[in-house]
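Hi all, a correction to my earlier message: I attached the wrong file for 2-oxoglutarate dehydrogenase E1 component. Here's the right sequence:
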Amino acid sequence: MEAQWAGSLLFGSNADYLETLYEAYLRAPDSVDARWRAYFEQLPQVNGHTRETAHSAIRAAFVQHGRSLRPATVITQDHESKQLRVQKLIAAYRSLGHTCADIDPLQLYQPPALEELTLEYYGLDAADLDTRFRTASLTDDSHDTLREIIERLQETYCGPVGAEYMHIASMPKKRWLQQQLESSRARVELDRDQRLYLLQRLTAAEALERHLHSKYIGQKRFSLEGGEGLIPLLDTLIEKAAAEGIRETVIGMAHRGRLNVLINIMGKSPQELFHEFEGLHDDKLRAGDVKYHLGFSSDRLTAAGPIHLALAFNPSHLEIVGPVVEGSVRARQDRRGDREGREVMPIVIHGDAAFAGQGVVMETLNMSQTRGFATKGTVHIVVNNQIGFTTSMSADARSSQYCTDIAKMIGAPILHVNGDHPEALVFVTRLALDYRMRYGEDVIIDLVCYRRHGHNEADEPRATQPVMYHRIQELPTTRERYAAALAKSGLIEPDTGERMLEEARARLESGPPLVSMSDIHTHADPAHTANWAPYYNADPNSECDTAVPLDRLQSLAARLQVIPEGFELQGRVAKIMEDRRKMAAGALPMDWGFAEIMAYATLVTEGHPVRLCGQDTGRGTFFHRHAVLHNQLRREAYVPLRQLDPEQADFLVIDSLLSEEAVLAFEYGYATASPEALVIWEAQFGDFANGAQVVIDQFISSGEEKWGRLCGLTLLLPHGYEGQGAEHSSARLERFLQLCANDNMQVCYPTTPAQVFHMLRRQILRRLRKPLIVMSPKSLLRHKQAVSSLDDLTGGSFQEVIQETDALVSKEVGTVVLCSGRVYYDLLERRRNDERHDLAILRIEQLYPFPERELKQALRRYTNAERFVWCQEEPINQGAWISVRDKLQRVIGGERRLDCVARPEAAAPAVGYFELHTRQLHDLLNAVFV
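and the right structure:
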């Protein structure tokens, strides 16, 4: 055993240590371990004296003996200490190697010299380079020299791929990524055909840009030049996704490179693009949009079968398309029953400045693993031009090291890659997709490249970035570099690259798309395709039967009352449920919450999915809905609307994260991909929609005119002046009405429970798919006058104009007051108190499209009326007045006088002092009842 123990340590890398130990033995034998002392005493002696043995002979004996033994685990204290230091060095490369990676094609910024990646930092030096250390976690071999270890770490972490993954909390995920990176040294092995295909894809990308640059000089196109690697990256991603079983992907991207993606990935005809450059347009669209905002869809044939590609339309608000894509993907996944995201996948392409600078990126990342918004992993690609318009990335665009650092908040792996290394692009793309498919989470590819021209082709970048653009001017293109590398390796002839380029440009002139037509299918799978055909050209004035038979209403209401055994409700909630039982029996007037819940119940049992989300939708901000019930005895929730019928459509209610912009954009995306579903976003207060104004302006109100995109999204925006201050009074009705034109959307202000019942049902039952903006109530939710009966649900429909409800003698009416919303109940109470029988009050419940015909018919009975008043509780420069005054005047006739009574002109939506609020209301009513 002693000899075996000593023999395991006798190899060359321990020679220095053993010599030191032997010298200690010569000076004082008792100072060394007894086993070593016994071993040294058996060594060859010189002149009969062990202590006088020559060191050279001892060393020779050790070396000779070590050569006959396989290196084994070193257990000496000094070597074990160095082993720990080597492990720390390996860990440092895994954590910090990306900071020294060769990821910048411009090489303008020298990577920092990190002490943590030096031998000296760990008490190691050149003498240790040939010492072997345990490396089981790094390689398949059990031992490598320190020199070999560093070489492997440099190739893996400091080459054209810079991998950030040590911030991930999950150890299995880190180990998986580590194994994928280190086992391959972050390289991919490609055969000759694969390399030639890569070159062909780069050639197609460059050919298109050169052609456009020469043919349409000075026209904006936001070229991909400098980032042509995006095309083979996307090509690899789509091919591999199809092989993994993905059947649909929705792509979102801003301007940069969009035209190239349309032609070289999506298969759009170059001639169609050229027509757009020449000013031709689609006459079917009322407004249309610039060419680099347009979307497209196609079915591409891959080696694994067809895959549907959809490029989302996007305005100039860059990152806002991200959550729209996520919503569209979630709708497609729901339609397929694809709960694990194995069939539909989102791809979002970002700009570096926008990824770091736009807050909606953080909001969207934050949604990625939540219950109502998860799409089981997005592949994010950052086209990193290293500049934002004219803003320097190094000093002014962000406070973090990388533009992608925001993604660390969700533990996403970040793969930085040099855009001038096409094979490295293939490696990171395959790795990214493998991670997404394995873990169902987001992953980031940071494609570090550059922008060969300015922000657009009419811009002069040298005015602000002279050093950067002097360097760019000197650089060969990615295609030229790769073609030269292939020629040097003997895979192609020296002139092959240029010949391929000329052939690609000739194909552009001749007509066929650069993605072969044989690769593009036009026959999508109808089983999983949303059919929008029935909804085009629908009449905005069409009506439908929204009434529901009494027996069915009562049956559904009874099922909604069934609570699981042992499920204890909170006291106020139990009282609401008991009241709803009485409402269903006709023993109690119907309130808003009951009518709304019954609308959802009837729809889902008729086969129409309902998706309702917002920051407090389960309960309702004002404690009125209670679509989700909570057990008071244990952490358990119950949703009665999901338990009505085994064959019912889905009902999903989500208390969303504290986001308006990303969540509303998500719901818009969902609604544009799901025409059969009632999709609702509810603001906690109506003014919260301010945070999502870009979605309202750029998508909801104008998406049909610009892009032909239909959308039936419903917005519930609590609105009403209750003396609660500026921030929680107004949903800014005037803004929505200002955006209304050409029957683009509906704006309603219902005042009774029956109205909301019929309005919600009408939104999905008729063929019209237009956004519905609802000024929804706050105090009216429990107002004693704002009630309905069962008869109002079993008969009737949504009334765009509600006639006077009190029994007035029409000929005695001299004043007609027209209004919308909760101010009606203030007017009604004042009239009854004053016993004014000469004043009629009409409610306009739909403000757009304006119901001129219905209002004209309602006014016919008041032949003796001489005074007409529009009354609103909003300030006179806000609310509906500015939008409706001309329409009202047209209806009542130009010879009749029309007055407006409103709060005084104001810059803020409402006052913050309750006493002032009350006085304003008093003055408003006095002005009506003169």
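Sorry for the mix-up. The chain has 31 helices and 27 strands.
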